[in-house]
Specification:
By secondary structure, the protein is α/β, with parallel strands linked by helices. It has two domains: 41-152 and 281-311, Rossmann fold; 156-280 and 314-340, Rossmann fold (3-Layer(aba) Sandwich). It contains eleven helices and 15 strands. Strands 2-1-3-4-5-13 form a six-stranded parallel sheet, sandwiched between helices. Strand 8, helix 8 and strand 9 (262-263) form a beta-alpha-beta unit. Helix 2 (54-65) crosses helix 9, helix 3 (85-98) crosses helix 4 (108-117) and helix 5 (155-169) runs parallel beside helix 6. The chain is elongated.
Length: 341
Amino acid sequence: MRAQKYSRSMVVNRWMVLVALAIVLALLLSGCCKKEETKVYRVGILSGLSFAADAVDGFKAGMAELGYIEGENIVYDLQSTEFDMAAYRSILDGFVAAEVDLIFVFPTEASQEAKAATQGTDIPIVFSVANIEGTGLVDSVREPGGNITGVRYPGPDIALKRFEVMRELAPEATRMLVPYQRGYPIVDSQLEKLYPVAEAAGITLIEAPVDDAAELEDFLQARTESDDIGIDAILIIPEPLGCTPDPFLVLARFAFEHQIPIGGALLEVEGYGSIFDVGIDHYKTGEQAAPLADRILRGTPAGTIPVVSSESYLIISNKAAENLGVTMPETLLVEAERVIR
């Protein structure tokens, strides 16, 4: 009889243990299977210059490598325009109103507008293809300050390198036309570097500050109507006028008509092209910006993240050189990262 009672008691206890284990297991499984909410970051992208638009693809690719999958844990609001200040402001105001988590922006003037538009907010900025010299964009390279950091475009250094390449390309040229967007914030820092070097080399820089393609055409037409156009070469410095299709076409057509070299930024519009480009890889520059954005989204204040710089390279178009009757020096062909035949 005792054995029977003991056996029944054992059975009851075992059942109680099994029921308890089942309850605990169910609770554990319900906790494990509960889907955790994934933070979805919203990033506003302002592409302010089509010439540098590859930076967007580079940025997205860099972010994807860091685990930010578009449509899953990050959403991009890509807005594009072509050197339009009013459009910059409208787009940026939209980003601020939407309270995006971060703004990725280029080039310089669009970055400046982003800094102004986000004053008084917690929205961080990562700029790219932007000059920091003389623009007030950052306090310093090591401590950019405020809500901003990014990838520096080495404009003054590139302007000087473009001048040196043009001298090697056209050693007889003593008068170089330097067209640029009137009032553009990064031009002065470049001219400050160029003038002493040009004067030492006995070369006259002919500035052509204009607002648009029509004004540029008027400037060049006045030169054409004189006995001597007074221009031996056209040097495109880092600024938007020379790499925007309509003004570039005016410059390139003039160069072809007068068989003078044109170079600095590499474009071809309606069959008219420039000979060389000393610039940056915009895709790689976008990739460089991604780790900065990642650090910000993980909680590091933007203004404490040091600015990084893009590297420059030389690309040559033999095709354009032949069209302009220019013989390409072997030294430049050897130096070039890429040669377009």
